[in-house]
């Protein structure tokens, strides 16, 4: 077991490797924020300003990573619209290899120690019966707000890359990739879709240096006036021949025109040409968040797994 330290890029690479080893065994046990692509996205875009509030612990067996915890502690950050994000609770991303499930107790005990005195949240998989029982034994209960009709719980969706329809864009739009446009244009596409956000050109440059980022698998839709109207990054796990979409977004002035659907079909065709055979994407699963779920169902995705948000009050 390694000591608790600040998270590093090398740690993220090890954590991605664990995700790659679990996917062929039990893909439904890959936790929220613990997938190959999600780890790259969360680390790459934000480590320059978030890393002081990140702590991690790693567990090894025969020199191979078999469990990890990534504690997100309180922080403040000014966003692009001038508002300030003021997070006062703790959140844990974590993963335990299913052949070493007994380590979940050590993960929980470490989290309770590093986040002592704070409200604590965590997102184990709903299929992880052993893990859920151990979290409950340590005083964690279902999070009523996250599980409400407008809650934040998420589901993982999947599809194979056969039988992909031809994408159709409305007149005046065209497909681009991040390799074909400026970093400023790439960031503008994300900021327009996700305001308020902390995302910057500097953050994007860091993301470009985070494996397995590929500019040719970062797809965009450009409007006739040059506006980047939609964008999506695909993270290609060559070991498992799968791509993960994260994030996917559309400019508010260009929504309800079929851009995201066409972009995803185009992206999946690019991914298939690169060697991928399978795709995944996460969306919010609560009844109040229908739009993204219907988008993904409309291009052939179906739910594979979901998370089970838990909370423990400060103390």
Polypeptide structure, described:
The chain has helices spanning 9-22, 36-50, 104-114, 129-137, 183-194, 201-208, 259-274, 290-298, and strands at 54-61, 64-72, 75-78, 84-87, 90-96, 120-122, 141-142, 154-160, 174-177, 218-222, 228-237, 242-250, 278-284, 302-306, 310-312. With 315 residues, the chain is an alpha+beta fold. The strands form 3 sheets. Strands 9-10-11-12-13-8-14 form a 7-stranded mixed β-sheet. It has a 6-stranded mixed β-sheet with strand order 1-2-5-6-15-7, sandwiched between helices. Strand 12 (242-250), helix 7 (259-274) and strand 13 (278-284) form a beta-alpha-beta unit. Helix 2 packs across helix 6. The radius of gyration is 19 Å and the shape is globular.
Within the largest sheet, what's the order of strands?
9-10-11-12-13-8-14
Radius of gyration: 19 Å
Major sheet size, sense and barrel closure: 7 strands, mixed
Q: Characterize the overall form.
A: globular
In percent terms, what proportion of residues is strand?
A: 25-35%
Give the helix level as a range of percent: 25-40%
* Count of individual helical segments: 8
Mean pLDDT across residues: 96
Question: What are its keywords?
Answer:
315 residues; alpha+beta; 7-stranded mixed sheet; 6-stranded mixed sheet; globular
Architecture blueprint of SSEs:
Layout: H1 9-22, H2 36-50, E1 54-61, E2 64-72, E3 75-78, E4 84-87, E5 90-96, H3 104-114, E6 120-122, H4 129-137, E7 141-142, E8 154-160, E9 174-177, H5 183-194, H6 201-208, E10 218-222, E11 228-237, E12 242-250, H7 259-274, E13 278-284, H8 290-298, E14 302-306, E15 310-312
Parallel strand pairs: 5-6, 12-13
Antiparallel strand pairs: 1-2, 2-5, 3-4, 6-15, 7-15, 8-13, 8-14, 9-10, 10-11, 11-12
């Amino acid at each position: 077991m390694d000591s608790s330290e600040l998270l590093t890029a090398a740690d993220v690479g090890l954590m991605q490797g664990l995700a790659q080893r679990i996917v062929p065994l039990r893909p439904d046990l890959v936790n929220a924020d613990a997938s190959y692509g999600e780890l790259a996205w969360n680390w790459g875009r934000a480590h320059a300003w978030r890393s002081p509030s990140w702590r991690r612990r790693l567990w090894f067996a025969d020199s191979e990573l078999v469990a990890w915890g990534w504690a997100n502690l309180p922080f403040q950050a000014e966003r692009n619209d001038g508002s300030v994000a003021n997070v006062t609770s703790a959140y844990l991303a974590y993963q335990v290899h299913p052949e070493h499930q007994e380590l979940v107790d050590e993960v929980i005990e470490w989290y309770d120690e590093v986040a002592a005195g704070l409200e604590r949240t965590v997102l184990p998989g709903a299929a992880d019966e052993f893990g859920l029982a151990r979290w409950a034994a340590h005083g964690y209960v279902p999070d009523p707000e996250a599980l409400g009709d407008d809650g934040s719980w998420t589901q993982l969706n999947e599809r194979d890359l056969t039988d992909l329809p031809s994408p159709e864009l409305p007149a005046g739009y065209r497909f681009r990739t991040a390799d074909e446009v400026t970093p400023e244009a790439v960031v503008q596409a994300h900021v327009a879709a996700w305001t308020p956000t902390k995302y910057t050109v500097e953050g994007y440059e860091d993301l470009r240096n985070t494996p397995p980022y590929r500019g040719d698998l970062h797809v965009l839709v450009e409007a006739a006036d040059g506006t980047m109207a939609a964008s999506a990054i695909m993270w290609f796990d060559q070991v498992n021949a799968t791509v993960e979409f994260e994030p996917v977004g559309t400019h508010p002035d260009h929504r309800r025109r079929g851009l995201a659907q066409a972009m995803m079909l185009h992206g999946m065709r690019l991914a298939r040409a690169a060697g991928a055979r399978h795709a995944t994407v996460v969306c919010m699963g609560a009844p109040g968040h229908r739009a993204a779920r219907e988008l993904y169902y409309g291009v052939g995705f179906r739910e594979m797994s979901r998370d089970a948000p838990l909370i423990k009050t400060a103390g």
